[in-house]
Amino acid sequence: MPIAHPPSETGAHRPELSVNPIFTREPVRIPRFELPDGELHADVAYQVVHDELMLDGNARLNLATFVTTWAEPQAQQLMAESFDKNMIDKDEYPRTADLEQRCVRMLADLWHAPDPATAIGCSTTGSSEACMLGGLALKRRWQLARRAAGKPTDRPNIVMGINVQICWDKFANFFEVEPRLVPMDGDRLHLGAAEAVAQCDENTIGVVAILGSTFDGSYEPVSEICAALDDLQERTGLDIPVHVDGASGAMVAPFCDPDLVWDFRLPRVASINTSGHKYGLVYPGVGWALWRDSAALPEELVFKVNYLGGEMPTFALNFSRPGGQVVAQYYNFLRLGRDGFRRVQQTCRDVATSLSGRIAQLGPFRLLTDGSQLPVFAFVVDGDRPYSVFDVSAGLREEGWLVPAYSFPAHREDIKALRIVVRNGFSHDLADLLLDDLRRVLDRLEKQSAPQRGAESASFSHGTR
Ligand SMILES: Cc1ncc(COP(=O)(O)O)c(C=O)c1O
């Protein structure tokens, strides 16, 4: 299987790009598929690339993605000022390195690490890398403990709901850990505590709990899962740590649900990740991985880089990485503080719950979730209608809105849902406009004799399987 897609066939009948004659006084030949021999004027090259990108979707109308699509000009300016800084060059860019450490410390405090000053963590390219690091630490801890006890280490497994984001399938595949995916059952559309524990054994490196589920925005019951694992330890002696995948929720729950206990307040929670580029409000790509203390991250996984004449510990899959995202994260922390984040995330939640309520009132839809946890909700077409969720998604796409439709995984493949992610910048006004368009799409679809599209037409599901 090829790693990359085969080259695009678009324009294959014309091997050269067509250039607006106004861009350039002399005719230029720009090969479509080969590296050009000669140079182009920067303005011409800019205009050609700019024009092609015009046909991408409008990011602000992309209700499929969790990733930031609007940031303040000041954050953009700081990012532009840092484009030339490589995050790994701690010695050359010590201030950037220091901002990263301050962000880690702020997150450790936000997530109630026992001692934020000694909690360890790092920035990453996003939650996927952060989850890989969290999983690797779990695996190595388990291996060390097993070896110390003279037991075999050849069959590690990790327990998680089948609703986990695709990055966990990657972790299991790349790092050779058996994924034990707990299926959905009836109305339980994410991991349950009893079901998680039932999958655990002496080879379990950890349990992943998600805050919240990519499929429907619901929070998994982290404290119940921890309590059930406490009980398992009492009964069997098995001490199984929990990693919380808070890709979105770890930047929502601390502000909107301060009484929800899901983080390092639970002693069993060993590590947490979040995406700075989701509800951390930074443009892609930045994520964060934190461990409750140094015991949770085996020393042998940590590498040292030069820093101010000494050494600084790092844990990352990448080496080079842009510094701008970390700088923008620090800017957001300073700029918004707890009050600002609360206001932004609560506004998203208000927009989500209000929009989901009005979608429910339209008639043809039933809500699976209402946006009152993550500001994300999923809904299905209820009853016998002459259209499918895939028809609704295609209809909205014609109006410019990207709203994904997808099937749920085992054992609820029967559920075909639409999902809306409300992010900062998606206002009540935009929600009104979406609703107007949805009404128009439904009027059109009601005239169909039968659904036109099935699950095969699902084109963008954002990591759901
Ligand atoms: C729960 C969860 N985990 C991990 C990821 C992967 O995050 P990233 O896109 O930051 O790599 C996502 C992305 O949507 C997610 O929702």
Rg, nearest Å: 24 Å
Bound molecules: pyridoxal-5'-phosphate
Name the overall outline: globular
CA-CA gap between termini: 20 Å
Question: Which stretches are poorly predicted, pLDDT < 50 over at least 5 residues?
Answer: none
Q: For this structure, what is the CATH class of the largest domain?
A: Alpha Beta
Q: Name the strands of the widest sheet in spatial order.
A: 3-9-8-7-6-4-5
Can you count the beta strands?
A: 15
Largest sheet: 7 strands, mixed
Structural class: alpha/beta
Q: Tally the helices: what do you get?
A: 11
For this structure, the quaternary state is single chain
The percentage helix is 25-40%
SSE string, helices as H and strands as E: EEHHHEHEHEHEHEHEEEEHEEHEEH
> From the 3D coordinates, which CATH architecture of the largest domain would you assign?
3-Layer(aba) Sandwich
Mean pLDDT: 94
> What is the H level of CATH, i.e. the homologous superfamily of the largest domain?
Type I PLP-dependent aspartate aminotransferase-like (Major domain)
| Number of structurally distinct domains | 3
What do we call the CATH topology of the largest domain? Aspartate Aminotransferase, domain 2
